[in-house]
Amino acid sequence: MNDNPGDLPLLFTPIKLRSVVARNRIVSSPMCQYVSVDGAPTEWQLVNFGRFAMSGTGIVFGEETAVEPRGRKTHHCAGIYHDRHIEAYRRITDFIKSLGSVPAIQLGHCGRRASAHGPLKDRAALTETDARQGLQPWQGIAPSALPENPGRPIPRAMDLDDIRGNIAAWRDAAQRAVDAGYDICEIHGAHGYLIHQFLSPVSNKRTDGYGGSLEGRMRFALEVVDAVRAVWPKDRPLFFRTSAVEGAGGEWGIEDTLALARELKAHGVDVIDCSSGGVMGDGPMPAIPRVPGYQVGYSREIKREVAIPTVAVGMITEPGHAEAILREGHADFIALARELMDNPNWPLHAARALGYGDPLNLVHAREAQRLRLRERHREEYPPGTHVEIPFGPGEKVSYSWAARRAGPRDRR
Questions:
Q1: What is the pTM of this model?
Q2: 193 in active site
Q3: CB 3.0 to 4.6 Å from 204: which of 143, 360, 362, 391, for a disulfide?
């Protein structure tokens, strides 16, 4: 449900999904932080995600959050697999809500990408040497016993009991997310993680009801959605992140994603978050160039063909570009990740650039008060006007607008 009064930039028009209203269409995309302690967030997450809410972002996602311990990529990845995690996340969601943003969680499971170091160590697999330093390796699970890449650890192929237990873990994690105060939940079905591993013919070689045909490969994803939707409140929206096409050597393409999106919609998903990449093999898919808005076309196709709201993400950095994507009907939300890391106040600057009536309404009154004083000072002394800076009761020195400082004193 959209409401765009007058000339209000669409990027800053509130949007309602079920009972949840986001104050604008800007989304901080989930970004793994690799600083959790046994899955629990620390002060890092409170500050890192809180700063996006402070700047006026409409929806603030945390990071990909594992539904069970072995679903983490590293020992330092986030998780919500213990009840003791609830209070730690509640501290973050309460803070985000106090600033006017909607707190959102992305639930995930890495599958065969488990038991690794983080990106600062090139995601190298854990070894027995690491075990002696307290980082015990573990075996990942996957639809088939195929490594992510040649030379990587081989996962254990999931049997039916594993599948049932894993789906139950998604359900339990979603319930904890409710208790932790999240208003939006996203299921991570992209980037080569467990759900994507089931979807892709490159990584799923099963011959039972969870493999083979497209319908069989989609089965696990849809059963996860059903389990999450069963406990996720009916008045709160459910997102699903998909890799619309796979990376170089993949096989999954946009037509597969459209078929999946139709089923996701029928199973209660409200929004498709459109990403790409994650599974590579010997298939015909070429590499995906990382250029501004390179995934917007995927968002457009899904929104048009399936009639479901979408999120556009990927190298969108300019406010005018973001606004055009929305105005032209290619997406309903604009997600930013690294751009917000580089410029946490991007929403505030975008509001100014797009002519939003009062950009300072986006930030907390404590910040707005000081920023309004700065604007008033600029209005009092327009560039080029004659200004003198006092150096004493009877001494003034002319100010130079070119040098942006007081000139030299006359010592005669």
A1: 0.94
A2: yes
A3: 143
